[in-house]
């Protein structure tokens, strides 16, 4: 039996809402979506949350709501998934790839100082692997920030939830995320004008006037599952933190480095990452013993454009990509599986 890299935590009770949907014969955007949006806004302590069909569509709507257009520059980290650069290209803006800090794996003020120009209209700030970035420090640049919280729901920055301090924040409910609803996303803001624009853009039918709109709505089928996952978020985060503490104790005796949180933050440990100069050997060894460790990011974005980008120097990103291994950490991980993982790593380093 293999120990998966990630695994959603699903129970039969997560799908009890289906009976009501069958009785009502209604599966489009309805009461479940409305309830999810209300709960999400209350959780973050913000005014508006609009459910979408995915995290990527949420990001696209966020860029549109900020009126990002052709020739505008949007700064994004290179050490992230391709969904970010896709969304920037959807609006025909210019993605400006930035390096990351080698300890936090996040954008920093020092990094952004080198990338910001007169054409910079937004920064997409990821809280990589659930470790909050310095949102307050970065907000001092005065540039709209889109908090990408696909990894970080339940993480805290100075006692506040990530996603509550940027101009806009986006979340993902993809199958491997903290709240696993298969697909789905959320875009959140305190700005009424931004919220109105996002709602209008994501509701294409039965409108008095025409503009290009997008069928990015979430269905009640997705929202019902997301609601049940949301009820268990606190438990999910506590379990991850408990496992992380065990891992940190064990790995302190191995020749590896761990991702570091910045001061006054609490990561949710969406991923548990070790940094090692033997990443390939670790992955091969653990996989051969049934533990599906992997690289946490498939490929840095600047590697797709080495023939085009002027700045090919991304030392932090390349360090993270070449030297990181993601170790299984999730709600359904059994104590016996945690022990197996630890024992396999002990054997490797012995």
Observed structural traits:
3-stranded antiparallel sheet; alpha/beta; Aspartate Aminotransferase, domain 2; globular; 2 domains; 36% helix; Aspartate Aminotransferase, domain 1; 7-stranded mixed sheet; 350 residues
Quick overview:
This protein is α/β, with parallel strands linked by helices.
Describe this structure in words.
- With about 350 residues, this protein is α/β, with parallel strands linked by helices.
- The protein has two domains: about 10-230, Type I PLP-dependent aspartate aminotransferase-like (Major domain) (Aspartate Aminotransferase, domain 2, 3-Layer(aba) Sandwich), CATH 3.40.640.10; about 235-350, Alpha-Beta Complex (Aspartate Aminotransferase, domain 1), CATH 3.90.1150.10.
- It has twelve helices and 13 strands.
- It has helices at about 15-25, 30-45, 55-65, 85-90, 110-115, 135-140, 190-200, 220-230, 235-250, 280-290, 315-325, 335-350; strands at about 50, 75, 95-100, 120-125, 145-150, 155, 160, 170, 185-190, 255-260, 265, 270-275, 325.
- The strands form three sheets. Strands 1-9-8-5-4-2-3 form a seven-stranded mixed sheet, sandwiched between helices. Strands 7-6-11 form a three-stranded antiparallel sheet, with no helix packed on it.
- Strand 2, helix 4 and strand 3 (about 95-100) form a beta-alpha-beta unit.
- Helix 2 runs parallel beside helix 8.
- It is globular, with a radius of gyration of 20 Å.
- The chain starts with 16 loop residues before the first helix and ends with a helix.
């Amino acid at each position: 039996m293999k120990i998966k890299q990630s695994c959603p935590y699903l129970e039969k009770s997560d799908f009890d809402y289906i009976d009501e949907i069958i009785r009502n014969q209604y599966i489009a955007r309805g009461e479940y979506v409305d309830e999810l949006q209300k709960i999400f806004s209350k959780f973050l302590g913000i005014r508006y949350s609009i459910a979408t069909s995915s995290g990527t569509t949420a990001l696209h709507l966020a860029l549109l709501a900020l009126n990002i257009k052709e020739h505008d520059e949007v700064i994004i980290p290179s050490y992230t998934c391709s969904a970010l650069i896709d969304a920037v290209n959807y609006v025909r803006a210019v993605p400006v790839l930035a390096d990351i800090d080698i300890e936090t794996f996040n954008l920093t003020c020092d990094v952004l100082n080198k990338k910001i120009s007169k054409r910079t209209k937004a920064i997409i700030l990821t809280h990589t692997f659930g470790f909050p970035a310095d949102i307050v420090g970065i907000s001092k640049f005065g540039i709209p920030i889109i908090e990408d919280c696909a990894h970080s729901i339940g993480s805290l920055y100075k006692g506040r939830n990530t996603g509550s301090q940027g101009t806009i924040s986006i979340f993902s409910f993809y199958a491997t995320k903290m709240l696993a609803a298969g697909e789905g996303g959320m875009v959140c803001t305190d700005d009424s004008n931004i919220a109105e624009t996002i709602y209008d853009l994501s509701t294409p039918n039965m409108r008095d006037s025409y503009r290009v709109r997008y069928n990015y709505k979430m269905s009640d089928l997705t929202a019902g599952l997301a609601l049940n996952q949301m009820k268990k978020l606190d438990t999910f985060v506590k379990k991850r933190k408990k496992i992380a503490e065990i891992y940190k104790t064990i790995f302190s005796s191995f020749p590896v480095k761990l991702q570091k949180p910045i001061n006054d933050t609490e990561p949710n440990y969406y991923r548990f990452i070790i940094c090692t100069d033997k990443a390939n050997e670790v992955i091969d060894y653990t996989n051969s013993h049934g533990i599906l460790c992997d690289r946490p990011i498939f490929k840095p974005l600047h590697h797709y454009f080495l023939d085009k980008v002027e700045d090919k120097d991304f030392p932090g990103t390349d360090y993270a990509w070449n030297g990181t291994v993601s170790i299984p950490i999730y709600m359904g991980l059994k104590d016996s599986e945690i022990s197996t993982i630890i024992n396999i790593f002990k054997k490797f380093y012995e």
